[in-house]
Amino acid sequence: MDILITGLLLGGTYALIAMGLNLQYGIARIMNLANGEFLVAGGFAAFWFYTAGQVSPLLTIFIVAPLAFALNWLIYVVMLRPLVRRAKSRGQLEVDAILTTFGLSFLSVGVMLALFGGDYFSYSYLARPVQILGDTFALNRLTAAVAAVLICGGLWLWLNRSRAGMSIRAIAVAPDSARLVGIDVPRLSALAFALGGAVTAVGGSLISTFLTLDASTGVLFTLKALVIVIMGGVGDVRGTIVAALMLGLLETFVATVIDPGLTLAAAYLMFVLILLFRPQGLFGRKTA
Amino acid sequence: MSARDWQGLSISAVLLALAACLPLLGDDYYLTIGVTIAMYTVLATSWALFSGPTHYISLATAAFFGLGTYCTALGIENGLSYWMTLPIAAVLGALVAGLVGIATLRLSGVYFVIFTLGLSELVRQIVTWAQNVSGQKGLYVLTEITEAHIYWQLLGLGALVYLAGWAIGRSRLGFALRIIGDDEEVARHSGINTARAKVLLFMVSGATASVVGGMLAPRYIYIEPSTAFTPMLSFLVVIMALLGGVGRLWGPIVGVIPFTLLWEAISASFPNQTTLLLGFSFLVIVYLLPRGFVGLLEGLRRRVLQREAYA
Rounded to an integer, what distance in angstroms lies between the CA atom of residue A146 and that of residue B190? Predict the structure, then answer.
């Protein structure tokens, strides 16, 4: 029971991060390997505001989100759009995007190391125990998970109920056909990329309330988000959430029952099983 | 073999013989740099053998390297001779590469990149866990092998890799790989077993990296998971190979030599700025040198030839 709830709480936060990556990869078609660095940057912002001005991380996200949105929009328009134009095939764009975002990832790690040093950072926010179904949990984990669920729900509603959301889903399914029905693909791709970055950074602020981060942990979160996105299916919100919850459960189970050092190994095991048996994602349909 | 092949072969043999004389200079600093350059040359060239024609970016070099290092260290500790451990490392590397390849290479390139990105971390976690369970911390590798021996071994392996690359380039397998790189769909329709070709070549590249790891084990003397599986190694190999250019067999070495020197200089004087350098290198490759130094040189050559034709 303890594992179940801790796992679900962790999975809820993972869902938010993976959702950010899924917007970037599913719609803008950019496999953003610098995703984890934005998460850490969001965490840094929350840490800094909390220690310097006692600003609650739940308020910081309202500063982090627009900043991350603007920054990611700039990155897409300035750096990635030329690559999209120059690419002759999907494969070439993928290779270029991977190399570029690796570059960005290393650059931002370097900048963060220079600004904040290589120390771990953590702060104590809402570190009070709460009782759920007879077991004790930390309030900050619960808050983060609830906030994540709210944001995911909001995104899901926006994607499924609004006109812009429908256009974005159309791009995810068929980018070439979307242009034929008058959807402004370049503009919406930039929007989706920026939105994805903002969501991830907010996820980082939330995660920093209960996990210890340092400048170079970003890549681990990128990996987890990638595994979740592929498991849930590219561009599929529902699949992402289910996959994130599964990963959260599995990691918590492995960490408590076997060894906390093997969480990534567990995530990989899941990844391999998915690749072998359902490479199109949990709910994906087979394409040719 | 044509006259051109013989020419290339004899030039390579002369260069190799010259390179083999380096330890005779008796300068330890040059020898250390020489070992590093030889190591990266072998790794980057074998990386390019697979990634050049197929455009699949492998970040698993560190995983294979560490595997080989551990293989040699464990072998020596359990009474095997050093020379026995290298073939074991090669077989093990090929085996792991084969498994990874079968799981990921049937699918699109992104899955492969992601999987290899985490592979060294995955192996590191497992080795650390196994050590915790068995209560062992690190491993000592005590041998009679000196830096010069390592250097000569790496040169020999390098020569093998070049020969293999040359042979593969002329074989049906190499031809198949070039078609896969140009258009996988076409390759499949003309009856090429694309997955098999990719897995086979990935195994060659994995086995080589594993042997390099084994050869360098005596240099480290003391081995623990965090030194054997440094993810940085994978990225350095990718950068060096792409910087040189993967379209030609001799491309990676053109990138390895200047980048190793630059890397040594930067890590000596600004050790905290190395990640920034890595980041910049990736961006330079994508935006300024998409075909590497080789592409730059060939472009220049073509321009000079054209000007001569007009004159």
Answer: 54
Q: How far apart are CA A231 and CA A53, in angstroms?
A: 40
In a domain, A41, yes or no: yes
d(CA B34, CA B29): 8
Establish if A288 belongs to a structural domain: no
Sequence-ordered list of residues with C-beta below 8 angstroms from that of A262, at least 6 positions apart, any chain = A254, A255, B125, B126, B129
Amino acid making up residue A40: V
Q: Of A13, A286, A265, A263, which Cα lies nearest the Cα of A145?
A: A13
The answer to whether A219 contacts B104, with C-beta atoms less than 8 Å apart, is: no
User: Largest alpha-carbon pair distance within chain B?
Assistant: 75
**Residue A79 belongs to a domain:** yes
Contact B279 A109 (CB under 8 A): yes
Identify the residue whose tokens are 């075909």.
B291
Q: Where are the beta strands (DSSP E) in B158-289?
A: 222-223
Structural domain boundaries enclosing A117: 2-216
Q: Round the average pLDDT of chain A to a whole number and report it.
A: 83
Tokens 């189970």 belong to which residue? A253
- Where in chain B are the domains? 3-310
* Strand partners for A129: A138
Q: Is B159 buried (19+), middle (13-18) or exposed (0-12) by CB count in 10 A? A: middle
The total of structural domains in chain A comes to 1
pLDDT at A288: 37
Chain B touched by A31 (CB under 8 Å)? yes
- What's the DSSP call for residue A24? I
Do residues B297 and B244 lie in contact, with contact meaning Cβ atoms separated by under 8 Å?
A: no
pLDDT at residue A32, rounded to an integer: 87
Instruction: Show which of residues 216-245 on chain A sit within 8 Å of chain B, judged by CB atoms.
Output: 219-220, 223, 226-227, 230
Top mean pLDDT of A141-150, B25-34, B73-82, B208-217 is at B208-217
Give the separation between CA A129 and CA A122, rounded to whole angstroms. Answer: 18
The per-residue pLDDT for range B28-54, each reduced to its tens digit, is 888 888 899 999 999 999 999 888 888
Coil, strand or helix at B183: coil
Distance CA B54, CA B184 (A): 9
Q: What is chain B's length? A: 311
Residues of A in contact with B280 (CB under 8 A): 103, 107
Tell me, which fold does domain B3-310 have in CATH?
ABC transporter involved in vitamin B12 uptake, BtuC (1.10.3470)
User: With contact defined as beta carbons under 8 Å apart, do B235 and B59 qualify?
Assistant: yes
Q: Does position B203 have pLDDT exceeding 60, yes or no?
A: yes
| Helix residue ranges, H only, B22-171 | 28-54, 61-77, 82-104, 109-134, 147-170
ipTM above 0.90, yes or no: no
What is the distance between the alpha carbons of residues B208 and B42, in angstroms, rounded to a whole number?
8
Contact list in B for residue A28 (CB cut-off 8 A) is: none
Q: Which pair of tokens denotes residue B58? A: 């492998």
Q: How far is B21 from chain A (nearest CA, A)?
A: 37
- Residues of A whose CB is below 8 A from B241: none
- Which residue bears the tokens 């969001």? A42
Residues in A touching B281 (Cβ below 8 Å): 103
CA–CA distances in Å: residue B120 to residues A200, B85, B174: 25, 21, 28
